[in-house]
């Protein structure tokens, strides 16, 4: 399909720069088949059914954005995927000033060697010293806010809490699974009292999620790989939910993509550990999920293509037009939608 089919105009003042307070006071646009209604996130227990199960991503965002120097040249690095204990793939700003074998000096005596250049233009960096890379990042890094926020303000200390979900446990993401930012302990208690369960999986979200689709046709776009895991017990419990007539509802496109990567042809969710490059566009047959809660996405992005695959492109364009006209807040710190095909 032509990428331009997924374009729409978004006023800059609709881009949220801070999350709602409290988190579950964010607005929630519900699409239930052809029905559309405006709600708030705290009303979610009344919008789902007893026996449904929400699936959250428990990845934890690391301070993966670094500013350093190679000689006199300023070098920016955004880590996006771990290679091993000491090496990470990174998107580099001012990459024309960096060559294989160069050493980059970051603050707090953190140093890395540019070991290789990848086909997509990113670099493989090897961090020097004995401290774990996560310790080095805590010393020298900052939270990797999405470009559409970072271009408007600097990341600050507040973002270290704001840009983590209440489920964040497994370190390794360089972007938050932002649909889950709306959940609070009080909301989780209310959901449990309504008979709505929850499970967690892990997908370490990479910075590739923010990369623009440069191809003119979706068939020519290649997704960046991200590492994920679903254990056997979690897979069995999710299959049991559907076996009893409940719905598996992914909280965030990251949870959805991992569930779909782990599903067999008959729709059963299997244990999974490894990389996924799944790219979901209209025409895809969903196997593992029955609904999705997600934030509002960028024009012509792979994530807007995904929600269009779930609900239909025309329906999603109309829903986004309604959201824009109604003052919904967009993107990572913005409001949410509940999509029930």
UniProtKB/TrEMBL annotation:
Monomer. GO terms for molecular function: S-adenosylmethionine:tRNA ribosyltransferase-isomerase activity. GO terms for cellular component: cytoplasm. Gene3D superfamilies: QueA-like. This is S-adenosylmethionine:tRNA ribosyltransferase-isomerase. Keywords: Cytoplasm, Glycosyltransferase, Isomerase, Queuosine biosynthesis, S-adenosyl-L-methionine, Transferase. It catalyses: 7-aminomethyl-7-carbaguanosine(34) in tRNA + S-adenosyl-L-methionine = epoxyqueuosine(34) in tRNA + adenine + L-methionine + 2 H(+).
């Amino acid at each position: 399909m032509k990428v331009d089919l997924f374009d729409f105009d978004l006023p800059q003042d609709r881009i949220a720069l801070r999350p709602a307070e409290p988190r579950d006071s964010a607005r929630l646009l519900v699409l239930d088949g052809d029905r559309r209604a405006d709600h708030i996130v705290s009303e979610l227990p009344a919008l789902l059914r007893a026996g449904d199960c929400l699936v959250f991503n428990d990845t934890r965002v690391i301070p993966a954005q670094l500013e350093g120097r190679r000689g006199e040249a300023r070098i920016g690095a955004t880590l996006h995927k771990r290679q091993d204990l000491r090496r990470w793939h990174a998107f580099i700003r001012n990459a024309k000033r960096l060559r294989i074998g160069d050493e980059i000096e970051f603050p707090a005596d953190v140093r890395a060697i540019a070991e290789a250049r990848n086909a997509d233009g990113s670099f493989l960096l090897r961090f020097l010293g004995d401290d774990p890379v996560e310790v080095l990042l805590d010393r020298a890094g900052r939270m990797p806010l999405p470009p559409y926020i970072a271009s408007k303000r600097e990341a600050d200390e507040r973002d270290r809490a704001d840009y983590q979900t209440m489920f964040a446990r497994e370190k390794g993401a360089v972007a938050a699974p932002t649909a889950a930012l709306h959940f609070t302990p009080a909301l989780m208690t209310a959901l449990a009292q309504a008979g709505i369960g929850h499970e967690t999986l892990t997908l370490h979200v990479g910075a590739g999620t923010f990369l623009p689709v440069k191809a003119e046709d979706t068939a020519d776009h290649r997704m960046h790989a991200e590492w994920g895991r679903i254990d056997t017990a979690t897979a069995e419990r999710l299959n049991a939910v559907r076996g009893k007539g409940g719905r598996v509802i992914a909280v965030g496109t990251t949870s959805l993509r991992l569930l779909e990567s782990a599903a067999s042809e008959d729709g059963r969710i299997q244990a999974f550990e490894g990389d996924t490059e799944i790219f979901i566009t209209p025409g895809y047959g969903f196997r593992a999920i029955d609904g999705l809660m997600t934030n509002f996405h960028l024009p012509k992005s792979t994530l807007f293509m995904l929600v269009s695959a779930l609900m239909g492109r025309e329906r999603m364009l109309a829903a986004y037009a309604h959201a824009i006209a109604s003052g919904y807040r967009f993107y990572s710190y913005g409001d949410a939608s509940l999509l029930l095909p």
